[in-house]
């Protein structure tokens, strides 16, 4: 009921915005971050083994 | 309800980029939901929802928040990995995260001194219960839990206020359509 009240208090359309991705200095930033996190995970797990 | 009053309930809301790639989602968004041939329309809609895995659970609510948040993170130039990246990486999923799969892991930046784990939960479980899953990760990350009723304050340090407002307003309109 609480959720329903919140929802029906505002039924107006939302003005749509252009959410184009911000240009990134490094186009491979996500891949590099994933690799970095995997390397960190490997390091942490090897410490656990010790 | 006749077709004149019906149109009052048809609202436009931001369709996340990921959803724009799906013909089923486009069909559901553009469907007039009229009363003519309602039974046939219902079959069509349920078939597509089932195909998307969105029937009889809250997965669609979760995915709307997930994909719109992803668009906003990209718009703000954030570097992150998503749950699908984590699932594909045994070292992360089973090693570092011990089988727990959050929605996003955000890289630290100028305003954030620690890695940030973001998990979206639409099952309305107590936040403390969900957060307890992540307690052991405190040595490398902070955690925020996004729920349908309380994501604005949680995202305060992640997105600009206008983006949080945009997410909130669109999510409300999406829910009206979803429940309709």
Explain the layout of strands and helices.
The complex is a heterodimer of chains A (50) and B (180).
Chain A: H1 2-9, H2 29-49
Chain B: H1 3-6, H2 17-20, H3 23-30, H4 38-52, H5 59-75, E1 80-82, H6 83-88, H7 90-96, E2 104-106, E3 115-120, H8 127-132, E4 141-146, H9 161-179
Parallel strand pairs in B: 3-4
Antiparallel strand pairs in B: 1-2, 2-3
Helix pairs in contact in B: 5-9
Mean pLDDT of chain B: 84
Shape summary of chain B = globular
Proportion of residues in helical segments of chain A: 55-70%
Q: Using the 3D structure, state the CATH architecture of the largest domain in chain B.
A: 3-Layer(aba) Sandwich
Total helix count of chain B?
9
Alpha carbon gap, first and last residue of chain A? 53 Å
What is the total tally of β strands of chain B? 4
Q: Helix and strand string of chain A, N-terminal first?
A: HH
Characteristic key phrases:
heterodimer, A: 50 residues, mainly alpha, 58% helix, B: 180 residues, alpha+beta, Endonuclease, Chain A, 2 domains, 4-stranded mixed beta sheet, 4 strands, 48% helix, 10% strand, disordered N terminus
Can you walk through the features of this model?
The complex is a heterodimer of chains A (50) and B (180). Chain A has helices spanning 2-9, 29-49. By secondary structure, chain A is mainly α. Chain B folds into 2 domains: 15-56, no CATH class; 59-170, 3-Layer(aba) Sandwich (Endonuclease, Chain A). In chain B, a hairpin with an 8-residue loop joins strand 2 (104-106) and strand 3 (115-120). In chain B, helix 5 (59-75) runs antiparallel to helix 9. The longest helix of chain B is centred in the C-terminal third of the chain and has 19 residues, at 161-179. Chain B is globular, with a radius of gyration of 18 Å. At the A-B interface, helix 1 and helix 2 of A face helix 5, helix 7 and helix 9 of B.
């Amino acid at each position: 009921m609480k959720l329903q009240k919140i929802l029906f208090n505002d039924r107006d359309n939302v003005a749509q915005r252009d959410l184009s991705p911000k240009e990134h200095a490094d186009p491979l930033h996500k891949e590099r971050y994933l690799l970095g996190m995997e390397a960190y995970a490997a390091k942490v797990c090897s410490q656990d083994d010790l | 309800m006749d077709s004149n009053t019906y149109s009052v309930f048809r609202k436009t809301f931001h369709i996340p980029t990921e959803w724009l790639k799906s013909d089923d989602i486009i069909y559901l968004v553009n469907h007039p939901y009229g009363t003519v041939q309602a039974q046939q329309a219902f079959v069509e809609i349920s078939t597509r929802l089932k195909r998307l895995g969105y029937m009889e659970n809250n997965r669609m609510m979760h995915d709307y928040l997930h994909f719109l948040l992803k668009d906003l993170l990209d718009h703000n130039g954030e570097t992150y990995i998503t749950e699908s990246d984590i699932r594909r990486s045994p070292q992360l999923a089973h090693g570092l995260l011990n089988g727990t799969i959050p929605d996003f892991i955000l890289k630290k930046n100028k305003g954030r001194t620690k890695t940030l784990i973001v998990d979206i939960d639409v099952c309305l479980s107590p936040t403390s219960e969900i957060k307890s899953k992540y307690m052991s990760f405190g040595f490398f990350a902070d955690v925020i839990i996004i729920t349908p009723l309380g994501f604005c304050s949680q995202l305060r340090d992640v997105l600009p206020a206008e983006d949080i407002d945009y997410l909130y307003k669109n999510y409300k309109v999406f829910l009206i359509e979803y429940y309709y």
